[in-house]
Write a structure and sequence with these properties.
about 40% helix, single chain, Amidase signature (AS) enzymes, about 425 residues, globular, alpha/beta
């Protein structure tokens, strides 16, 4: 099948601002793209027939999809579960309200896995429909990759932004914890749940973040960026040997290309305290899921998947002392992570163990993402590489907590370097 063609948010806004197109036409094009493409991809669970269109705002004319784990007052919000079929919240999630204030057109809700956990939805990978798009932000990634909309909003608790972005060959950005508000999300693990963004490229997702938040995050060409001043750490985590051969080769090519472009490369061995922190993610997530989703289990047990019920029960059976231990390990890990970035500026790791797995029964494995979700650090999946049969491979870049602008700026530069080397 032909490779999908994502829409460049940057190009779309340039066309709008130069008068080549106008917001109603831009939204109409997105509606038509969804109409013609989504029967095959199934990225949307709800599409607005007459979406509201603004004028004169930063995101006017930009049609975006909202992951169906985030509340929308004017659209059904089902959280990927039959329990909430037809559910209509009274208010928008905070990030949805923010998008509306900035002028974006909320064109529909994108498919999520059940409660943003591991039970897959119907969405397929636009690069090969026999493969998963990843999860839990399945529809958000696939809608951008398939060229239906230029940007979407998703969430990540383990690897639910980075992994689908990597599998679908686009940029997925998980900001520093709480840079984007999580109020109005169906929470799974509140100390981990993070709102993230998708767009075609790093430059596009940075522009989306900038226009959405009003923060200085865009990454227009900057001649002041000197690669020799940027210290890139090749993060040799304990999971690295488990990446498949294609992913290992892509990471090696990325590091060699970055070095050839003048970046300073520093091998970084994973500290034991961060190995321990990675192991803390699962019990911490389970305990909080037991709290957050326990009421659902009590009321709707017959309507929940077995794997969701299992993790809720695991969390409810866990002693509070075990949760406290996991929290302490996470806190020590955050201190070690801060110290790590005293010696480097950006870490590079795989975004996923390999390309998107075949079949839709699994959304893949978040082993390379969940540590950084727990640490609260900003991370982004840089699209550039692919396997011999055309499945995308993403390179994950990570920065110090709060250093989102540097992360986006360096990642945009690296994306160009990687594409030349790919």
């Amino acid at each position: 099948m032909p490779a999908p063609e994502p829409i460049s948010l940057s190009a779309l806004l340039q066309a709008r601002d130069s008068g080549q197109t106008a917001p109603p036409e831009m939204v109409a094009q997105a509606s038509e793209a969804i109409r013609t493409k989504d029967d095959d991809i199934v990225a949307f669970t709800h599409v607005e027939n007459r979406p509201a269109i603004s004028n004169g705002a930063p995101l006017s004319g930009i049609a975006i999809g909202i992951k169906d784990i985030l509340d929308t007052a004017d659209m059904p919000t089902g959280y990927g579960s039959e329990v909430f079929a037809g559910h209509r919240p009274r208010t928008d999630a905070a990030v949805v309200a923010l998008a509306r204030r900035r002028g974006a057109t909320i064109i529909g809700k994108t498919v999520t896995t059940e409660y943003a956990f591991f039970e897959p939805g119907p969405t397929v990978n636009p690069h090969n429909t026999s493969h998963t798009p990843g999860g839990s932000s399945s529809g958000s990634a696939a809608a951008v990759a398939a060229g239906m909309v230029p940007a979407t909003i998703g969430t990540q608790t383990g690897g639910s932004v980075l992994r689908p972005a990597a599998y679908c060959g686009i940029a997925g950005y998980k900001p520093s914890f709480r840079l984007l508000p999580a109020t109005g999300m169906k929470h799974f693990a509140p100390s981990l749940d993070t709102v993230g963004l998708f767009a075609a490229t790093v430059t596009d997702v940075a522009l989306f973040a900038d226009l959405l938040t009003g923060r200085d995050l865009r990454v227009a060409s900057d001649p002041s960026l000197r690669p020799a001043d940027i210290r890139i750490g090749l993060y040799r985590c304990s999971e690295l040997p488990t990446a498949d051969a294609a992913m290992q080769a892509a990471l090696e090519t990325a590091i060699a290309a970055a070095q050839a472009a003048g970046f300073t490369i520093i091998p970084v061995e994973e500290p034991d305290v961060l190995k321990k922190a990675r192991a803390a993610h699962s019990p911490l997530q389970a305990f909080e899921a037991g709290m957050s989703c326990g009421p659902d289990l009590a009321l709707f047990e017959d309507q929940l998947s077995q794997r969701l019920k299992d993790v809720i029960r695991e969390g409810q059976a866990m002693a509070p002392q075990a949760y406290d231990t996991a929290r302490r390990d996470a806190k020590r890990g955050r201190m070690a992570t801060a110290a790590l970035f005293d010696d480097i500026d950006i870490l590079l790791t795989p975004s996923a163990p390999g390309p998107a797995p075949r079949g839709l029964a699994s959304t893949g494995d978040p082993r390379f993402n969940k540590l950084w979700t727990l640490m609260g650090t900003p991370s982004i999946s840089i699209p550039a590489f692919s396997t011999a049969d055309g499945l995308p491979l993403g390179i994950q870049a990570v920065a110090r907590f709060g250093d989102d602008r540097r992360l986006l700026k360096v990642a945009a530069h690296l994306e160009k370097v990687f594409r030349t080397a790919a």
